[in-house]
Design brief:
The complex is a heterodimer of chains A (about 160) and B (about 600). Chain A is mainly alpha-helical. Helix content of chain A is about 75%, strand content about 0%. Chain A is built from eight helices and no strands. The longest helix of chain A is centred in the last third of the chain and has 27 residues. In chain B, helix 4 packs across helix 9, helix 5 packs across helix 6 and helix 7 crosses helix 8. Chain B has 14 helices and 28 strands. The longest helix of chain B is centred in the C-terminal third of the chain and has 34 residues. Chain B folds into four domains: about 190 residues, ATPase, nucleotide binding domain (Nucleotidyltransferase, domain 5, 2-Layer Sandwich); about 60 residues, no CATH class; about 120 residues, Substrate Binding Domain Of DNAk, Chain A, domain 1 (Sandwich), CATH 2.60.34.10; about 100 residues, Substrate Binding Domain Of Dnak, Chain:A, Domain 2. The chains are: A mainly alpha (about 160), B alpha+beta (about 600). At the A-B interface, helix 1, helix 3 and helix 4 of A face strand 19, helix 11 and helix 13 of B.
Amino acid sequence: MTVLKLTYFELYDISVNITLDLNELNSKYLKLQTKFHPDKYSNSSAMEKSMAARISTHINDGYKVLGNLTSRVDYILKINNFTMDENKTFKNNQFLIEQMELTEKINKSNQTQQDDIKNYIKEKISSLILDMKDNLSNKDFDILYENNSMIKFYKKNINQLSK
Amino acid sequence: MALIQISDPEKSTEIEKKLSVGIDLGTTHSLIAKRDGKNLTIFKDNNTILIPSIISDVNGKLIVGNSVSDDSVKSIKRLVGLTSKDIHTINFDNLQINTDQDLPRVILGGKKYNAIELSSRILSHLCEIAKNHENNFVQSAVITVPAYFNDMQRQATKLAAEMANIEVLRLISEPTAAAIAYGIDDNQTGNFIVYDLGGGTFDVSILSIEKGVFKVLSTKGDTHLGGDDFDRFLVEYLRDKYPQLSKLDINELYNLAKFLKHELSEKNTAISEKHNVSINLKEFNHLINSSVEKTIALVDEAIIDSSININDIKNIILVGGSSRLTTVKMKLNEKYNIEILDHLNPDTVVAEGAAIQAEVLSGNNRDDFLLLDVLPLSLGIETYGGLSEKVIHRNTPIPASSNKTFTTFKDGQTKMMINIVQGEREDISECISLGQFILSDIPSLVAGAARIIVRFQVDADGLLTVSAKEETINKETSIEVKPSHGLSPELIQNMISTSNNMAEDDKNFRALKESIVEAERAMYAIQEALKIDGDELLSSSELDLIEQSISTLQDAILTNSIDVIKLANVELENTCEFYVERRMNNSIKSLITGKDINDIM
């Protein structure tokens, strides 16, 4: 079905970018589901029901993927046919050392230190987002992939902090 | 732009009106309700709307209602979706359980019945009540289940309905149903915690209600925590405190406990003069404190999962008889300081919400209403080392899907087994196995060359289906399902065909009536659609083809043969498939700002 071949960005009519307006995503999500949710087809033929269910699933899948920064970037890489060379490992040594230090800090931290660490990480993520925007427009997908991996690490750190 | 939307009430009189109901299939009692515009009817049986979920054997017939014999079966819902292996985990006081087969069976009147059969009996009874009041068959229903019911429990509930000849329009979760009643009847908007403490289960859901859209954000629960536990604690406590009670039989003891518990939702001290016992609120609080704490911890988890700030939550909606307890209200107040909404009857609010949803889904469509639900428990697959790898995470909006790619690890391997589990823990022994899926007909290739895409699809009822395809040669692999819950396809078929809840003639008559209604709906919808955009979307030869199909179906209806009508209906659907697809694509086009779909492909 043609609708199912649309990328999530096309489906939601949102331009391909690293960041997006979550309110816009949400309102379009509701608009689309109001049209295609299976409940709106409860009296329809079996064939229509199954089509609607497939479209509704596609809308939900897109909402989930676009609604989250790292999954959105993974998706951008995917629609640009970028695949990570599995033989290449994460080589940014400086980053790995920083991660080890951060983990140690987090384990030893008290409440005020935790807030400081959180702010530090948030700044890091903000600056990575700016980098990613550049890398996307330059089509530097290798670096974009690396940026996104770093953000995933930082997000894990934040999860550790809230535990 | 569904083809078939019969919303014009004048039009719908042309087509036989279906009776669609909402059913709250509860642990201790059940309700059946109908909604018609503003009018809500909760059907009464023996002058009560709370119909006991108790089944007794009277001279070889299964009767639903008040307990009449010592072996009457209570709380059968606790057994739904469990296997014989599971049942040691919960207290089945007063129930005699037989575990010879995969599905545990209770013994009643000397015969053995599984939970699906008995649930089906309750559902049949409920429909009988509605039928007598309305003078019309119950054709379809929205049935509520605890939000935290897993796939097996949902499947079992749906199967019970099928056995009772009820078409399930939707399974919705109990807290969601309650929220619908508050949202529609009470015109509430905002973010809500629905705290649902019933007789047997506890559920909590966080929902946002806005402009008729009910969006479930997160859900948590415990399928074995509820007011029945409180009664049990109270019975144990009373026995210790008042040795003279040992001469009472177990039913009398429970009745005494229930009486005292109800007294304590209004008073500080409850006294039974007949038995010369008393208990105060403090003692009772102490007894149930750890259970209530458990519910609070689950509410906390649900709030975290919803990503909603506690300050943005407007109200706590209370549902379920046990939410009336002072202890519960005090605890919630202390902890959250959010205004409590409890003015709709907590016993009937779930059935009411189900009835609203049934009305919406049965064609009396309201354009201003939509329910968006989530998957309550994560789905995963067993990976090496007995760990669960999540395939679809909990609280994902449904319907949802996910693809996983697998490969072979031996040269020439043509079969593969996938164990599908549900639950949050990493260790699969802590999750529930839904079944083993055996993929066969994998093309024989060198190890690692085959790419098998397994697709997990969860529908709007929260039910899972699995399909698989080998990608390198693009071939569907066949899947054999070995359900872990003892519900093999053969058993399901067997149970449905032997469910003799209706006379054969009745069944045939109804099936014929349904097939005609179905056919008329299909024709009506397509004719309406053609009026709107037939000329625009179809060539004249395509139009001829469809019109021909319609007239074939019209002729088929005159034959009064179910098979002929169904065949002609399927023919019509097949003929129109391309047209329906064009309409759907077209409506996406009109939704997303003015672009032609062909421009963005």
